[in-house]
Amino acid sequence: MFSPVEGSVSFPKLEEEVGAFWKASEIYHKSLAQREGAKPFVFYEGPPTANGMPHPGHCLTRAIKDLFPRYKTMRGYRCERKAGWDTHGLPVEVEVCKQLGIHSKEEIEEYGVEPFIQLCQQSVWRYMQEWERLTERLGFWVDLEKAYVTYHQSYVESVWWSLKNLFDRGLLYQGHKIVWWWAQGGTALSSGEVGQGYREVADPSVFVVCNCVDSNERLVVWTTTPWTLPANQFVAVNPELEYVAVRFDHPKLPLDEQASLIIAKDLVDKLAEKLPKYYKVASKKKAEYKVIQTYRGSDLIGRRYSPPFHWFSHELTDSEEKSAPKVDPTGKLLTGETEHLYWRIVPAQFVTTDSGTGLVHIAPAFGEVDYEVLASERARFSDPQTLELFNPVRPDGTYDERGNWDGVAGQYVKDCDKQLTKHLSNLNKLLMQEQYLHDYPFCWRAEEDPLIQYPRESWFIKTTAFKDAMLENNQQINWLPEHIKDGRMGKFLESNVDWALSRERYWGTPLPIWQCEETGKQEAIGGYDELLAKPGVSGTEVWEAAKKANPELPDDLQVHKPYIDAVTYDSPFAKGARMQRVSEVIDCWYDSGAMPFAQWGYKGQQSGEAKERFESQFPADFISEALDQTRGWFYSQLAISTMLFGEKSDAATPGADASGSPAPSPQSPVPVAQPPHPFRNCIVLGLMLSEWYEDKKDSKKLYLTEEEAKAACGKGFKHAVGKMSKSKRNYREPNEIFDRYGADALRWYLFANQPPWTSIRYSEQSIKDSIPEFLLRLWNCYSFMVIYANIDEWDPAEECGVRNAECGISEEVFAKAESYRPVFDRDEIDRWILSELNRTVALVTERMDAYDNFGACGAINEFVDALSNWYVRRSRDRFWAKDKRAVDKLDAYWTLYECLLTTTKLIAPFVPFLADAMWRNLAGVFGNGGDSQLDQQSPVSSPQPLFPESVHLCDYPEPHSALVDEELSERMALVRLISSLGRRAREMENLKVRQPLAKVEVILADTKHQSWLEEHAGVIADELNVKAVEYSDEPEKYVDHQVLPNFKLLGKKLGKLMPKVKAELNKASGSELLANIRDNGKINLAVEGQEIELLPEEVEVRITAKEGYASANDKGVVVVLATELTPELLAEGVARDLVRAIQDTRKDLGCEFTDRIEVGIVTDDETVKAAVEQFADYIAGETLSISVKLGPIEGVEPIEITLGDAVVKLYIKVQK
User: Fold this and answer.
1) Residue 845: enclosing H or E segment and its boundaries?
2) Preceding omega of 664 cis (within 30 degrees of 0)
3) Cα–Cα distance between 274 and 143 in angstroms, integer?
4) Which of 12, 34, 47, 870 does the annotation list as catalytic?
5) Does residue 996 surpass a pLDDT of 60?
6) Is 570 an annotated catalytic residue?
7) Is residue 317 pLDDT above 50, yes or no?
8) Is 661's pLDDT higher than 50?
9) Rounded to whole angstroms, what are the CA distances from 261 to 144, 359, 764, 846, 1081?
């Protein structure tokens, strides 16, 4: 017999029981063991950082990362799931700084680098228990015991090996570049990190007037970074644009009457419209101006001007005055001529007329594009270094002593915009200013710190040499959604810049470059043992002393700062000199991107376990993370893999000849992979948004459900959707969701409500709603089966006579039962639901193979709805039949059992807890599955000898095409559609389903299945509670048709004729127009002498029922209900209401399903009395009543109910 099922299930409680079973029985490890030797399905875990609390967004990523490995395992693959932890970099340092109450590098160094990195190492495990609980509670099967950890020595050395490979091939180099600089943290960031910190800000946009040296003209220069103006070196124009010198008629301009302004011609009018607003001249909407001179951009090149500020002109001339410099330095060109070095107009194709003035301020120290302008200018001079780089900003983001000229020395540059703008105004150099909304990057781990572009000597990886190879690799990856390939990722690769690798920080993988203190020459080290083998090595005693002082220190710290910095050795480049490590650590995104090989400690070995493990698990078949990882983990993996393992991975080897043939690599050979790698399929998850409710009077008061908001605010609240915020606490913590609704409810909501790459609303109400919409609906089918099977003592194992025998659970085993009939001998509804089951299995498999969990869930949802709301509901009388061995009853049990058993396997990857709870009970009747079922020697494809103890040890179901009856599916879908439309028509007329009606008329556009439908009239009559079902081809008897133009489709086609076409359609008979469509496939109209042809999709048909009828239509079917109610129909409706009321009372009294009752009814309403007298037998049969009569039952307290306007007292006595 089946284990009894609780009527009111607690899914959280059930999940805890199943989770405990998994752990005790080591189900995950058994799922791997039974697939030993099978084809691998490779999954990479994107490593989270465990020094922050997990939030709902992590539930989505971990649920998706669990779903497909579970599915593929059940499909026969072996899927190792190695966990990983990202433990280096700014995320960790920032958290430790918060803990210590410090922020800057100076404060870290004052605290001490050694204790700081020790705190960092400890910090990464701060919330480990919370992460493990989330992982376990969500049902994410991943090997946490063998997780890779990026600070572990084996991982660090593997990263070193890869960097040595790049260094020896000339791809890792040191250079001066303009980098995005986190001034407060004192380090550069990579483009991927920068991309994660953009947000919209309003910056000052200033129009600066610079006096031309050779005339009374003024340049109007535009910038959105006033703080960079003191470092101005040039003004750029586009040689191809047209410029004008204009004189504005405006008394408030800071100009003398003869001065004219040089601006791009296409932007003069825009500026003229802005000036009156800025100077508050209400009488003018646009400043008047006169064009004095017209120039080509090329005419302006070489002209000189006075800079906005004279910080550097004073420095160059040793002047103490704030006037223009008396000496303007010059240099010798390659042509032999001389040229002024600075403050002149230069050409630049990037200058446009999209905004500004067409004259762009160039400060090469603070812009990558600006720096390229300087590089171009330097190339014109015989001594390029003659042109200096003006940089008045210290690495901490403050102005140096040169800022004393305008009183801003020592101040943070972004805070000085207002002060410098005011100084420009005082010097009559500010034409106007306004606010400019644009996206600007902030530090991704210190959200209040804006980044600045800054000149810095850093270490770079030459990723630009592999741009084409990365694009080719990218094209072979199956991105979901597909637009990521050529969109977000493709465009990022197209604009690829060399990877800014080094970080001037502390807690990270040390850059493995040692430099000769005398010659400056460098070499890379590929491992700690390689370092210790160097001649004259010393400094290891620093680590040994630290370990002696604190034996608890993990040995992995010996390859970290400050201990690794102490290790030096004899220089191979200069006798007597020492090699010292450079001070930088590397970008933590390189760490995470190296995980495909570093997780195994692979260092280019030619043999051994690391090589075997790496090659067997490369590339990945599947990865998934959120959209923000496109420029993070996705890119770092793609770039590293392309450079190390791509077909062109040796293309940049030093010594390559002109043909591109590489010289022999100094590194050990590495495996060459064909694209795509390092991953083949990637689901890019959408951002998770939160949903909450706010008090209208106080927006700080938040509520997470509508019920909470109503209780606290009445109607005074508003609905809100936005980003998740720790400070706002505008989301329910995952553990609370698990405890309230269960992990399966959350998983199903995440999988089934939208494609995973769309923005997902974390709605507690929607999570709650997923329980009755799917989980509870399926559970009710299951509990119905278990309850009535136990009542009837129907046990499939006893039926088969094979309990505890060594057999699988299959159709062949079921066929051993005398009561098991072939599917084709069963009732039509049995054949239909088994056809639907196999159609669903095929569709779900197809969708899951395409990584479409949303489509798969839709198919499962439809099947469970069909099983519950059609099969079980329409088969209840078969299950309730008194004869326990009736053939029809036994067929129903076998059919429902097969459906549920297969469904548990079908849903196992999606809702693993519910699936296993159902499986263990449904399959458990065949005996106890256990370790004996796992034949370790047999091939994976062989059948399992006993029933698996967990559904997750089963194979995924295969569809039986022979059982699929497409015609029957079409026909039953039509019956269900008619029934659904009939119920919709009832709802529109407020006719409750329990009220019988005289008839329904069905009108079919396609009559192919009409004769079959007529044979099944009883089904439709029962569903719609009507006395007769009729079919008609004369819809005009019952409904009026109105044909309207489809405005969206016909707008362009008809233009001004649209109103007249609409009028013509209104004049015509709707039925005749529809007949035209049916007979001719179109509607022909004559409008103002023009022949208009309308296709079926170009019109909309609205149907209105005539008096005495209610109607609904969809998909070529019109259903019309006769709404007239006779006294006989009303009485029957009352009887049905009484049945419902008695059934509800049975539940309230706690009656068992088999309990018999006596019913007494007392009322003054004659209609109710007549209904009881006329339908007493019907009421008794539906409610398991021994008797139903008018009058009270002695000794029973009545229950008062209301039926319409009638007051009724029910007396119910349970027979013992």
Assistant:
1) helix 828-849
2) no
3) 63
4) 47
5) yes
6) no
7) no
8) no
9) 68, 11, 60, 68, 68
Give the contacts of 598 (CB within 8 A, at least 6 positions apart). Answer: 148, 150, 155, 158, 159, 162, 591
pLDDT winner (highest mean) among 707-711, 785-789, 1141-1145: 785-789
In 3D, which of 343, 357, 355, 362 has the Cα closest to residue 220?
357
Query: How sure is the predictor about 1139, in pLDDT bands with cuts at 50, 70 and 90?
Result: very high
The neighbouring-strand residues paired with 443 are 446
The reply to whether 121 belongs to the active site is no
Q: Tokens 């389903």 map to which residue?
A: 993
- Side chain identity at residue 30, one-letter code: K
Catalytic site includes residue 86: yes
Question: When comparing pLDDT for 67 and 721, which is higher?
Answer: 67
Catalytic residue among 629, 637, 667, 933: 629
Catalytic member of 85, 180, 589, 832: 589
**Maximum distance among all Cα pairs of the chain, rounded to whole angstroms:** 124
d(C-alpha 1208, C-alpha 622), whole Å: 64
Q: Convert 212-264 into a string of H (helix), E (strand) and C (coil).
A: ECCCCEEEEEEECCHHHHHHCCEEEECCCCEEEEEEEECCCCCCCCCCEEEEE
Active site annotation includes 816: no
Average pLDDT over residues 787-796: 94
CB count, 10 Å around CB of 740?
Answer: 15
**Position 740 confidence tier, pLDDT thresholds 50, 70, 90:** very high
Which distant-in-sequence residues (6+ apart) come within 8 Å of 332 by Cβ? 338, 381, 382, 383, 386
633, 692, 779, 794: the catalytic one is: 633
Query: For the residues 372-387, what does the mean pLDDT come to?
Result: 90
| E strand or H helix that includes residue 65 | helix 56-74
Average pLDDT over residues 27-37: 95
Q: Is 756 a catalytic residue?
A: no
pLDDT level of residue 385 (50, 70, 90 thresholds): confident
Q: Catalytic: which of 12, 48, 86, 343?
A: 86
Q: Report helix, strand or coil for 1058.
A: helix
Cis peptide leading into 678, omega within 30 of 0?
Answer: yes
Buried b (16+ CB within 10 A) or exposed e, 199-234: eeeebbbbbbbbbbeeeebbbbbbbbbbbbbbbbbb
Residue 969 and residue 23: Cα distance in Å, rounded?
42
> How much of the chain exceeds pLDDT 70, in percent?
94
pLDDT band at 669 (very low <50, low <70, confident <90, very high): low
Name the one residue in this structure whose structure tokens are 């999709």. 1097
Q: Does 1074 or 222 have the greater pLDDT score?
A: 222
Q: 């040390």: which residue's tokens?
A: 510
- Tell me the residue type at 1160: G
The one-letter amino acid code at 1114 reads: D
Please give the average per-residue pLDDT across 1084-1100, as a whole number.
83
Q: What is the DSSP string of 331-363?
A: EEBTTS-EEE-SSEEEE-TT--SSSS-S-EEE-
Residue 589 annotated as catalytic: yes
Q: Look up 629 and say whether it is catalytic.
A: yes
Q: How many residues does the chain have?
A: 1216
Predicted confidence (pLDDT) at residue 513 exceeds the cutoff of 90: yes
H or E segment at 780? helix 776-791
